[in-house]
Amino acid sequence: MFLKFICCDVFNRIACDLVAKSPNIIDVEFVPMLAHVEPVKLNQQLQERINAVKESDRSYDAILLGFGLCGNSVIGLTSDLPMIIPRAHDCCTIHMGSKGNFLNAFEGNLSSGWGSTGYFERTFSQYSGYPITDQLANYKTTKEYIGYVEQYGEEDADYIWETMHPKIETGDSFYIKIDGYEYSNSYEGYLARAEETGKQMNVVNGSAGMLKALVNGDWNEDMFLIVGPGQKIAGVYDLDYVMKAE
């Protein structure tokens, strides 16, 4: 098959390796990792990239999306080509390799912070190019926050936002280790950040299995949603199907 792969930059190293080894011919492009901080903008960017696939001179068989729901960033996306996307709420499940692996490792700690090589390199390292504190403050540019301001004023909007999006603090932090894809000093860097904030570091074994199945065309219904031409992605928000096509 000839496939287009639009993927979050957090998977850059893994995706490049898997694409090179895939039996399929794949053109891949990456979206900056912290784009998910502003879901409305990311949704627009993804739809623009999907639309550009149709306008290109390439005859692709399908579009692969290296994303989960990611704050509803993928809701409403549509294409004239089939689209395949992991059934995942966010990239944590994809890093773990399956929904089952994710629940086994994080059950009872679903709100805990976590990191990985890709997460650290694309967010915290000196090479990432992202001023993360500024990025995370950009909720005030989201459609949701702006709607609160228009309806209630800025002071009340701040209160509503803080109520609807409480900061959840736990004493644990997780590092997802994926054998064969541990590079640079990511683990040491993430461990240092955990220690600075008094977190207990837990190392869990992740897997590139979900991404490998995605690029190899092994799209079983339990792991992936196949969105037919003209259909749109919609949320289900459970722990099984996560999303659907309609």
Question: Mind explaining what this structure looks like?
Answer:
The chain is built from ten helices and ten strands. It has helices spanning 12-21, 39-55, 91-96, 99-106, 117-123, 132-136, 143-152, 154-164, 186-196, 209-216, and strands at residues 2-8, 25-31, 62-66, 83-86, 113-115, 172-177, 200-205, 224-227, 233-235, 243-245. The strands form three sheets. The chain has a five-stranded mixed beta sheet with strand order 2-1-3-4-8, with helices on both faces. Strands 5-6-7 form a three-stranded parallel beta sheet. A two-stranded antiparallel sheet has the order 9-10. The longest helix is centred in the N-terminal third of the chain and has 17 residues, at 39-55. Residues 126-137 have low confidence and may be disordered.
Radius of gyration of CA atoms, rounded to a whole number: 18 Å
Extract low-pLDDT stretches. Answer: 126-137
Strand order of the largest sheet: 2-1-3-4-8
Question: What percentage of the residues does DSSP assign to strands (E)?
Answer: 15-25%
Helix content: 25-40%
Overall, the morphology is globular
The arrangement of helices and strands along the chain is EHEHEEHHEHHHHEHEHEEE
| End-to-end separation | 25 Å
Query: How many β-strand stretches?
Result: 10
Number of contiguous helices = 10
| Oligomer status | single chain
What would the average pLDDT be, to the nearest integer?
83
Profile the largest sheet. Answer: 5 strands, mixed
The chain-level structural class is alpha/beta
